[in-house]
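tool_call: predict_structure(chain=1)
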Amino acid sequence: MEIEFLKKQANHVEFKLMGETHTFANLLKSRLVDDPNVEFVAYKLEHPMDKDALFILKTKGKAAKAILLEAAKRVKEDLEELQGALDKALK
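tool_result:
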């Protein structure tokens, strides 16, 4: 996965997740929405066949980049938990 930042400000970032569609973008967005410091978060695909998700993240009181990193860590933890559950269930 490649990330291209289009705007980097303290409380506002815009970036593209290259090669990602709704599956991962929606997962990341859901983790960002859970953070009480997030004022606004949304993503869009320019076209249904597009493979790059464009995100807008605005925060209040905490740096947008820090919130984005924390959300990415929560996604990773969720996926590790899922993998553990699958490993256990498939033994």
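agent: The helical segments are 22-33, 64-89. Proceeding to next step.
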